[in-house]
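Hi everyone,

Forwarding the result from last night's run.
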Amino acid sequence: MKDVYLFSGFLGSGKTSMLTDVIRQLKEKKLKPAVIMNELGKLPFDSQAVEKDIPLKEMLEGCICCSGAEKTEAQIQSLLLDSDFDVLIIETTGAAHPVEALDAVFSPLFADQLNVKGIITVADSKLWLHRDTLTPQVRSLFLEQIRHAHLLLANKTDLLTEAEQGQVVYELQGLNPHAFILQTTNGRVPLSLLEGLKATTQVDKADIVKAPIASMQLGSRLVDFTDQEFTQEQFEDWVRALPETIYRMKGYVPIKGIKNPMLFQYAYGMVQWLPEYIKMPAKLVIIGENVSALPVIGAN
């Protein structure tokens, strides 16, 4: 499996500085990185920091999430087929929500080939102290990027006094008590810290629900429905019983009486079914908090 790191963080927080330094460390360990970089503008300014010998996919003028998710899936599939790499780094735009970013990574077609190590969020410490100056929408996104991180970098600490540094770490811990917080300058993080991350990602048969209850963190679960089928009513009853902390699901669900598994998508309470005209693998990706404790349909 390929290790995957999602780099998150608000605009100007220092993600690209972190990216270039992590690439340097990977190369020193003789590991081959590949990069997917998402930028909002028409010109790939940030991607110019990536060396020419590294497989690179860019998304310009758009978000890695929502309508861009299909493009991102195609890019990952292309990398898996055509490129020789050990580690995939996805640097999301500063305007991306971590849930949507994770959603873009997971396709039931290749989710079992990827090992998502975690979401690394770079937080601008100075901006954190002045977050009340942001608009409500921007502040909400800033907080969500921090809340869902598996590893938090309190960056630009060289611009703060010791008292301010302590305040930032204390307040970030209050918002996200599960993430390890590292105070950084120029986004420099030891590769060993990234390699030690373990996101709450599981690959299960549908009748396996014995995983221990994980801490309330954003994670994912790939469920295999091979040799099972349900009525649409059974499946939707299960969906309605899910907690609000399940944000996204997508995959192919075998429905009784229908030849091929149907494409199923779920986002924030909304369900969509679409017929498939070829036989797709009967797998479902679930994204949310505490996914390891979720009773899966078909469980004994």
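The CA atoms of residues 33 and 87 lie 5 Å apart.

Cheers,
N.
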